[in-house]
Write a structure and sequence with these properties.
Radius of gyration: 31 Å
Number of strands: 31
Number of helices: 26
Strand order of the largest sheet: 15-14-13-12-11-10-23-24-25
Largest sheet: 9 strands, mixed
Length: about 950
């Protein structure tokens, strides 16, 4: 759900309590608003010439339609006028967006950004500073670059919007409208069409030089916000962090784990200034919106003797104060425009004016600020408000006809309608669907109103009487804590989120499924007992009992020994040491994925968390490991760089009451049947001075399986490790260092010769995993699995029965075991062959030669030159002479529309293979899902 005006009553009732019958909604302004919106979104990402052509064409077509429509019949005239209105408003939106984009791109800043030039910039701050939640600790703020001094000393005036990325704490104290000077390095914006034309990165020690203070209005608003923070200092941690966000959108204190919980339950709209916040404030004045037009309306307005129009004017004053306190940035203005819909309904006394008022608000806001057309928050806000105005009343009436009590029907209809229209957008952006969003929003809404009202009272009282403000804040902290508890409880459920295809296709698919479900539910004649199976399925989907999940999906497999968790571009591994007990090695970049992985594995006790080094992609998810689990100790490398991440680890562990200790080379320890030895790092600074080379390297033996976990060790340290540990020999499982990057020591891979290589990797711009590394692993005889394609990977069995089970991609497709070659020295090896669902069966091969798989991932060469099937997304064959006398196991090819076959490729013989071999022959692969 998104922030929106909440209109809980389904009808504006008359004095007798009967619904006031009105005609259909007036939709005449909807088309022009959508036309301007779409044209502005397109124009922001198009070259100026194309924008001018499109605007001219729309104007010409609109004029022609108006001219020809004047001489036709009534129906033709009405249709021509409507289409002409859409075209003309689209032309206006495109023209405004094109001009604003051209103005932003004018000047020297875009060219300097393309050259990554360091300049002296004079900036005017236009937003509140906000801290990053992932990666290195940084401060982000929007600004307008008004003057730039280039490397040649040339000074140029500009008016270019930029995004400032800084690390010095001085940037966190800046208020909007403050003018500063700083030395920054410019870089291009990540995507065309963004508001910020360039990114201005200030150095770690670069403090801003303030050249002009904030305006009086912003100073007053800043004082009010600071007073609210001071009033909440004595509250419980969650309430202290959450209350400023509920009231004025100040999320500076919200920790990453709490923000992740709000995201998983679709409660993030409560952390932003939204129309629902404003509606709660207006509730004091007008009472329930559904009674605002009645003689017995609630709130303070009738008690003060205000007429309907007087009530609307006072509400406008409250809205203006709301905008001033919450800063007039686009998100606040969006909320104020959506909140004005309710005031317009009160002032005019007509519900039918709500939809055209919303359309008019969208049209005016897009013309005033074209970048709103590309804002996901703006889209969600408008969709939610439209659903509450159009769908919620009808759904509420349908529920009441089925015997649901009136008030409950209104609340259920409002939550369901907003979720139904917003979920496809969320799925398109985040490739997920929240299964607990509706119940969590219903429970949170019970406390959102009291928390917001009491929070605003504390905000107003803070400048006058701080003790009174603290008392009010304490009262507001109770419902705020309830909301945080709802978010944490909902997010902790195993099935709180479900994977869904992302992108436009995924969004359209979810919209189609939702529409079909609504049509079926509306036309069917339901009885109470008919909903029992549906409710049972939903409960099982959310709770996901391990026995049921294992039967349906095959995950997690029983008796797993090690699991490589899919945490994106990061690293997190889990070693089973007992029932519900595991050792965690690294935590990934964010709390959510590692927490979800541990919940799926039913891990509730963690005697040891080992963080190999302090890079954010290994320690950023520490809070997810600590969440709701008994953790014994956190062990880390002794080389505490980067210092910000080291401090983050100590701070996060201290908040959970978990001690932090260092680990040293030579230590040996174990839990249960699992034993491990620390091979690296030695005392002192790493060979290259890089934190990667200070990674803790762990050699683990678990029930007859040997695993090497080398962190992000790079070639210099890998070579030093071989020198320091000459006894290090082959292992069964290797977690590939540094996400499979090209920085690997071939001698280490040759020494280890793993049977299974696990590559923890996600979407990245570094080219990980490198094709050369993948080829080297396959030459060493390893079966290679990667978390971005295979999901979580579990290692099971021992010796000849060693195998891997992958959880599959986010579609939840069941995956079956992948058996590795026998590590013995017999005359044959067991090699897998593909099957539907990636099962692997063994068969012997002659020891004369073997063919190596070759991947085309990140391969820039023409596919046909590599002997690669361009229609496949998986592994194909190139050939080489076996130097170990054994044919290595092959990771199965994921087949495509063409059936590729597996046998010795053409050009291979008992003595070797040609450089390029054709692998099309032999038995066909069976199909398996592509990713």
């Amino acid at each position: 759900m998104s922030g929106a005006v909440v209109l809980p009553d389904a009808e504006l009732r008359g004095g007798a309590g009967e619904p006031e019958r009105e005609g259909p909604s007036d939709l005449r302004l909807v088309g022009p608003a959508l036309g301007a919106w779409g044209a502005a979104a397109l124009a922001l990402g198009m070259p100026g010439g194309w924008t001018a052509v499109g605007v001219a064409a729309a104007l010409v077509l609109g004029g022609v339609l108006l001219a020809r429509g004047a001489g036709g019949g009534a129906v033709w005239r009405l249709g021509a006028t409507a289409v002409a209105g859409v075209l003309l408003c689209g032309a206006a939106g495109g023209a405004v967006a094109g001009l604003r984009a051209a103005e932003a791109r004018a000047g020297p800043v875009p060219e300097l950004a393309r050259g990554h030039v360091r300049v002296v910039a004079e900036l005017t701050v236009t937003s509140d500073p906000r801290r990053t939640r992932t990666g290195p600790p940084s401060v982000l703020l929007d600004a307008e670059l008004t003057r730039v001094t280039g490397p040649d000393g040339k000074v140029t005036r500009a008016g270019t919007p930029v995004l400032v990325v800084a690390r010095h704490e001085g940037w966190t104290r800046l208020l909007p409208s403050t003018r500063v000077r700083a030395v920054v390095r410019l870089a291009p914006a990540r995507e065309a069409g963004e508001r910020a034309v360039a990114v201005a990165r200030a150095g770690r020690g670069a403090a801003p030089e303030v050249t002009g203070g904030p305006s009086r209005l912003q100073r007053a608003a800043g004082a009010l916000r600071a007073g609210l923070r001071e009033a909440t200092d004595g509250l419980a941690p969650d309430a202290r962090a959450l209350l400023p966000g509920l009231v004025v959108g100040d999320t500076s204190r919200v920790p990453p784990d709490l923000h992740e919980a709000f995201r998983a339950t679709d409660l993030v709209h409560l952390l932003a200034v939204s129309g629902s916040n404003l509606t709660v404030v207006l509730f004091l004045l007008i009472g329930p919106p559904g009674r605002a037009l009645r003689a017995e309306r609630g709130g303070l307005a009738p008690r003060l003797g205000l007429s309907l129009r007087g009530t609307a004017l006072c509400g406008a004053g409250l809205t203006l104060a709301f905008v001033v306190v919450c800063r007039p940035d686009p998100s606040v203005l969006r909320a104020a425009a959506c909140g004005a819909v309710t005031l317009l309904a009160i002032g005019t006394g007509r519900r039918r004016s709500l939809v055209p008022a919303l359309a008019a608000a969208v049209l005016l806001l897009v013309l005033w600020d074209p970048w709103l057309a590309r804002s996901p928050g703006f889209l969600l806000s408008v969709l939610a408000t439209g659903a509450l105005l159009v769908l919620a009343p009808r759904w509420s009436a349908a529920l009441r006809r089925r015997g649901v009590p009136g008030r409950l029907a209104e609340v259920l209809a409002a939550a369901a309608a907003a979720q139904a229209v917003c979920a496809p957008v969320v799925a398109m952006l985040a490739a997920r669907v929240s299964l607990v969003a509706v119940p969590c929003n219903l429970l949170a809404e019970l406390a959102a109103g009291p928390a917001t009202v009491l929070g605003f009272a504390a905000l107003a009282a803070a400048p006058v009487a701080m003790p009174v403000a603290e008392a009010l804040a304490w009262c507001a902290g109770v419902p705020a804590g309830w909301i945080a508890g709802v978010a944490r409880t909902g997010a902790a459920l195993p099935g709180a989120e479900a994977g869904w295809p992302g992108g436009v296709g995924g969004g359209l698919l979810l919209a189609l499924v939702t529409s079909a479900a609504v049509l079926v539910a509306g036309r069917a004649r339901w009885r109470w007992w008919a909903g029992v199976p549906v409710a049972l399925v939903l409960v099982l989907a959310v709770l996901r009992p391990v026995p049921v999940t294992r039967v349906l999906t095959g995950w997690p497999p029983p008796d797993w020994r090690y699991v490589q968790c899919p945490v994106g571009q990061g690293d997190a591994g889990v070693l089973a040491v007992g029932p519900g007990t595991a050792v965690v090695v690294d935590a990934g970049p964010e709390p959510g994925p590692v927490d979800r992985c541990l919940r799926e594995l039913s891990v509730t006790r963690v005697p040891l968390v080992l963080l190999t080094h302090f890079h954010a992609d290994h320690v950023g998810g520490l809070a997810g490991v600590l969440r709701g689990r008994a953790v014994g100790v956190v062990r880390t490398t002794a080389y505490e760089e980067p210092r910000e991440q080291a401090a983050f680890v100590r701070r996060t562990a201290a908040a959970a009451g978990v001690p932090v200790a260092r680990v040293w080379a030579g230590e040996r320890a174990g839990v249960g049947a699992v034993r491990w030895e620390v091979l690296w790092p030695p005392e002192g600074e790493p060979p290259s001075g890089s934190p990667n080379d200070a990674s803790v390297v762990l050699l683990v033996r678990a029930g007859g399986v040997s695993l090497l976990l080398p962190g992000d060790l790079e070639p210099a340290a890998q070579s030093a490790l071989l020198t320091a540990r000459p006894e290090l020999g082959p292992v069964d499982v290797l977690k590939v260092a540094h996400h499979g990057s090209a920085h690997q020591d071939p001698a280490l891979l040759e020494r280890l010769r793993p049977r299974l290589a696990l590559v923890p990797v996600g979407e990245n711009r570094y080219g990980h995993p490198a094709p050369g590394t993948m080829a080297a692993l396959r030459r060493s005889g390893a079966a290679v699995l990667r978390t971005d394609e295979d999901g979580a990977v579990a290692v099971l069995g021992t010796g000849p029965r060693l195998r891997a089970v992958v959880s599959g991609n986010r579609w939840g497709v069941r995956r079956r075991p992948l058996r590795m070659r026998d590590s013995g020295s017999g005359n044959s090896s067991r090699s897998p062959r593909p099957y539907k669902g990636r099962r692997v069966r063994a068969r012997p091969y002659r020891a004369a030669s073997f063919c190596l798989p070759h991947t085309r991932q990140h391969d820039r060469m023409p596919l046909r030159q590599k002997g690669v099937n361009p229609y496949s997304t998986g592994v194909l064959h190139t050939c080489s002479v076996a130097d170990g006398g054994l044919r290595r196991p092959e990771v199965p090819v994921r087949p495509s529309s063409r059936r590729w076959r597996s046998r010795r490729p053409r050009g291979c013989s008992a003595s070797g293979c040609s450089t390029r071999a054709n692998s099309r022959s032999g038995r066909p692969y069976s199909r398996s899902p592509t990713r």
